[in-house]
Structure formats: structure tokens, C-alpha cells
């Protein structure tokens, strides 16, 4: 594969992952990850999940607890591909509301009253390996954690997420991959 083909394959997985999040679509989510229990997730709720079976069980549980009311607004800050490894760093507005008593199920990631204030950052790690040794790109690790409030000043600099814009930073033109294709 060329670097452009690799980039297209990784961005498709990224797009599918975040679009699966919108309605907690389990089959689409499962298509992004390697087979077996090789996958590792550090969920925004603060807990780790091991392999696709645990991830599926988590999403089945979340289907009764949260509703993602719109496509997450995901702004890619960095995308790097080297050989059979790739990573993406992004900032996200995750518009969810509680539909069950447990909500996110965690004190680490408390749900905001305004769904557009549910902000997080994410790191996605990809390998050209489908879990069975075939050279197919899959996401092997995902790490999410809450972002500070958009108006909270950044220590030592004083700027805010709102002033930078979601995914913005020095020399960064954020890239959004959602819905029908790529939009910068």
C-alpha cells in the first residue's frame, strides 16, 4: 500500500469508530478492532476494557444508560503513519444524555447537563494486523479522557479550548472525518 492508501484505510476506521459511537452500533464498532482479546481500551469512564468481547458487553450496557444524540464532533490534531503502525490524536465533543440511572457509570466522567459540553480527548493506535496476522489495518488501542471546560484557561499559557477551537493548536489545522466523507 502507498502512504495515501494507508491514510485512507486508517481514516476509514477512525470514521467508522466515531460513527458507530453515534447510535452505539455494535457491528460497525466491532469491524474496527482486531479479533480476540488483543485490543485494549482506556475508556473515558476511567476503566480499561480488554478485547472485543468486553467492548461489546460495555456497549450493550451503555445502550441502556446513554444516548449519543448527534454525531460526535471529532477534530483530528495529529495523524502519523510509519510502516505498520499509525496513531491519531483528537479532541471531541461527545453529545450524550443519560437515559438510564447509571449514565456513564463513573465518577471520572460525569455527564454534563448540556450534551454539547461533554468534551474529551482521544488517542487511537492502529496496526496493520487484523488480530489473525493478516495485513489489514485495525485499531488496537483507544484511550479517552475528559477535556477541561472550553473556557478553562490552560496553565502557563492562559488560552482556552474555546479560543483555540476544538482540535486547534500551534500549526494545527484540525481534520474532521464524520458523516459523508472528510471535511477540514
Task: Describe this entry's structure for a reader.
There is one protein chain. The longest helix has 21 residues, at 3-23. The chain has one domain: Nuclear Transport Factor 2, Chain: A (Roll). The protein contains four helices and ten strands. 23% of the residues lie in helices and 30% in strands. It has 184 residues and is an alpha+beta fold. A hairpin with a 4-residue loop joins β9 (176-177) and β10 (182-183). The protein has helices at 3-23, 26-30, 51-62, 161-164, and strands at residues 40-42, 48-50, 66-68, 73-82, 85-93, 96-98, 119-128, 137-146, 176-177, 182-183. The model is unreliable at 180-184 (pLDDT under 50). A six-stranded mixed beta sheet has the order 2-1-8-7-5-4. A two-stranded antiparallel sheet has the order 3-6. A two-stranded antiparallel ribbon has the order 9-10.
What distinguishing features does this structure have?
single chain; 184 residues; alpha+beta; Nuclear Transport Factor 2, Chain: A; six-stranded mixed sheet; two-stranded antiparallel ribbon; 4 helices; 10 strands; 30% strand; disordered C terminus
- Name the beta content range: 25-35%
- Number of H- or I-type helical stretches: 4
Give Rg in angstroms: 16 Å
- The first-level CATH class is given as Alpha Beta
- N-to-C CA distance: 24 Å
CATH architecture label name: Roll
Number of domains: 1
Structural class: alpha+beta
* Quaternary structure of the protein: single chain
Would you list the SSEs in sequence order as H and E? Answer: HHEEHEEEEEEHEE
Biggest β-sheet, characterized?
6 strands, mixed
CATH-assigned fold name:
Nuclear Transport Factor 2, Chain: A
Helical residue percent? 10-25%
Please tell me the overall pLDDT.
Answer: 91
Shape field: globular
Number of strands: 10
Contiguous low-pLDDT stretches (5 residues minimum) are: 180-184
Strand order of the largest sheet: 2-1-8-7-5-4
